[in-house]
Amino acid sequence: MSYDGFPPFISAQLKYLLNHYPHTIQIEQARSGTRYFPGSLDRFTLLIPYCLDYMKWDVIYNAEFPLAAPDVIFGAEDEDFHPFHVLCGEDGDSRLVKNSLTDWNNKDPTRLLALVIELRDKYRSYQEKRVGEVDDDRLKFEISTIVSREGIEMHMSSGVEKPEEVKFAVPLMNMNINKMVPACPWRHPQKIYLQVIFPVGRKYAPSPSAPRLKLMCTPELKALFSIDDVKLPSWVDGMCMAEYLPHLEELLQRQVLEAITLIDVRRQFIEALAPLLGRPLEADPIFCRKASFLVCSGPFTIMLHVFLSTNFPKQQPSLMFQSTQVIIFLHSSLKFMDLFICECHCLALLCMQVLLEGY
């Protein structure tokens, strides 16, 4: 991200936030709200991950008064979220409590990070309170069975045009996947989550319908493991999350371990191509998902790119051929083109032969 246009004190706080926040956070709609410094950006929108979605919060600094703490504007659905007020007394009056804005120091680059973390923690408590107040026996039972699991987030959504529903984000498997991948490049811990969405019902149903289920993961994990290829176990009538989750975690654990072993399978295939095609010019050294070879075949010099999916060898590799003789092609006959295609076909057969022979 470019920090051009932000005053130095805002730029320093943004850099610290992006580099130290435990999850991926995004910034958009940077803009200026000052009359006297129109080119100075002093407000922006933060996209903060929560419950497998993003909350959009507007952060409003004032470039004309740099000592002042920023304002934060929450989403329209959260108009009842007042994180720094607490009710006191029988009259229900509210008062401010000490928080990250109380002794704001604009020269401290860590302050915006501390503010975002505190607000997100309070928002999580706010949503848990909302969900706990829902008059739905099934939801109350579900919460009671999983309350001991760490890291669960929940969100209550409602509106005029959509039915009320409660969404859970359940982290799965107590595995440190980062440590299991040699030379792991990931900055943040990689996790797999189950999103569970229950409709809010006011009456008891003897056979309630199954919730909507979706498996999700942190974006970087897709380089190792295709979450879309996982077939979720069936939700049996009368089942609850506490019964469903152990079966799912056992399935995922096996598949993640298999995905890690497949790194070596892909590496061995690329190494087996080297005696035939030469040493790769470029190769993915960690996940072994791709490699590029410069090959002389007949009258041609060809760049061969080999792409391996996470399901290799069940899924065949993809091959892409590039000629270094583009100018020749522009002035050549169809016969010359046919010869090039024939050479590419021979190289493809060579790769398939290595695959079939088990390298």
Automatic annotation (TrEMBL):
Keywords: Apoptosis, Cell cycle, Cell division, Chromatin regulator, Cytoplasm, DNA damage, DNA repair, Mitosis, Nucleus, Repeat, Ubl conjugation pathway. It is found in: Cytoplasm; Nucleus. One of its GO terms (biological process) is double-strand break repair. GO terms for cellular component: BRISC complex; cytoplasm. InterPro entries: BRE. Its main location: cytoplasm. It comes from the Eukaryota. Pfam families: BRE (PF06113). Belongs to the BABAM2 family. PANTHER family: BRISC AND BRCA1-A COMPLEX MEMBER 2. This is BRISC and BRCA1-A complex member 2.
